[in-house]
Amino acid sequence: MASDSCFTRYSSAYEVQAPSAEILSSSALPKLKSRLDKLSADVKAQLIEQGFTDDRIKFERKLNMRFDGTDTAIMVLEKEGQGESSFEEEFKKQYKAEFGFLLEEKNIVIDDVKVCTRSIRWTTLSPDGFRGYVILQPRYSIAWDL
Hints:
- This protein is of the alpha+beta class.
- The protein has one domain: Dna Ligase, domain 1, CATH 3.30.1490.
- The protein is built from 2 helices and 4 strands, in the order βαββαβ.
- The chain has helices spanning 28-49, 86-99, and strands at 6-23, 57-67, 74-77, 108-125.
- Strands 1-4-2-3 form a 4-stranded antiparallel sheet.
- The chain is elongated and about 50 Å long.
- The two termini are 36 Å apart.
């Protein structure tokens, strides 16, 4: 039985980043998470306006972090279900893996907050959606006589 429609997948990747100059501390984390929440809500609203459903939007929330006095920042992904110290722990883990040491006496500076989304949307197209296409018919038939 032939189907009268077909499904087409549309995907979208969207990133938004905002500058910051916060020093990582227990008092700064709620403010940083609030900024990440705001960016997430803004991106989500734009994707929903484009036809993506809430259950198809996935977020990655990140902080661009570095030790004070250095110029090399590392983008750290927020780990779901972990406490507020997850950013600091992950930054130190990545920094030590990259450089082989930690600058324990230095503050950690947040240069940027960033939200990345990945979303998928399926739409149904009728056969009329393919009117602009030409269906090629074979011109020749080849028979092999072996």
